[in-house]
Amino acid sequence: MIDPVRQEVIALAHTIVIKVGTNVLTDARGRLDEGRLYSLADEVQRVRQTGRKVLLVSSGAVGAGVGKLGLGRRPSDLRHLQACAAVGQGFLMHAYEQCFSRYGTHAAQILLTAGDFDNRSRYLNVRNTILTLFEWNCIPIINENDTVSVQEIRFGDNDRLAALVTNLLQAPLLIILTVVDGLYTCDPRNDQRAELIRTVTRLDANIMNMAGLGKSILGTGGMVSKLRAARIATAAGESVIVANGVRPGVIDAIFAAEPEGTLFLPQGNTLAARKRWLGYTALPKGSLHVDAGARTAVVEHGRSLLAIGITEVHGSFSKGDVVALCGPDGSEFARGLTNYSAHDLARIRGLRTEQIAETLGVVPYEEVVHRDNLALLV
Description:
Layout: H1 4-12, E1 15-20, H2 22-25, H3 34-48, E2 53-58, H4 61-69, H5 78-101, E3 107-112, H6 115-118, H7 120-135, E4 139-144, H8 151-155, H9 158-169, E5 173-178, E6 199-200, H10 205-208, H11 223-235, E7 239-244, H12 250-255, E8 262-264, H13 273-281, E9 286-290, H14 292-301, E10 310-315, E11 322-326, E12 332-337, H15 342-348, H16 353-360, E13 374-376
Parallel strand pairs: 1-2, 1-5, 2-4, 3-4, 5-7, 6-8, 9-11
Antiparallel strand pairs: 7-8, 9-10, 11-12, 12-13
């Protein structure tokens, strides 16, 4: 059965990011399932034959290392996790290369850390590399650089990485392959009344609460991380499908516009590349709390943020860093590039523009955050 909404989503999807979870790629003992990998490659190749560009964000390095080393389960401490990633990443990429070389296509490894997305220059370099690989008919395989990451390997997940890559490429569609059929109204393992939600038009708190807190055995994510990733991508104007990657032919079914998995529709208008980076990719170095008048001026009237509207300054940041803008209730509503350091802002917050010169001796900028360097999150 063809879903007309999905048919439209697929028709617009010229570039696709597919995230493959650890448990999709490995068997019950944690070893890489080569048969499933070959099937995945076959389906991806059929998508590429339609003229679409496909990028894979692939978990599985730690899981492959667990299987290769015969450990039986995922370690919990950092040094063993990183050692598993070091062993498993090469094994994982070799398997991908074997799969795609049958079609005359090379698998290209890209290992990233959070810092690659925070730094604007490195961020753009990643994009240029991916686009060049597309030109050369290669299939980019992206993974987090678990071997050198510290905080990310403990708390990060490839669901978020996939969403950031989707925004980086302005890809109209992100497909997250996991080991469940999609988002249910409640946990189907505990409640027989659970129903699969086919389409989510509004990703609000009620939807987020349906996810539960479970994590997979070998992976780091769960449905919560997938919904957070969906929120990042859909807020920038993209569509997301969460589906069961263990099910044979799942990608074929998705591109036949069948109601496979859960479709999350865009939550807002498509954002320009710079606004995507500001609002949903770079991590803020600090935060500025503003009064109700300043929030209204920024959100409803498209104004810049002035010093007079700032009530609190938090964090340590310099001129040009990304900062979060928070309203009187503490909730974040925008992000932008600050024209002042945290030290200077602590001195001039709440002051009128003409009073800034009396405090700093000069007024380098009238605006603390100019509206051209600001992205709304509401």
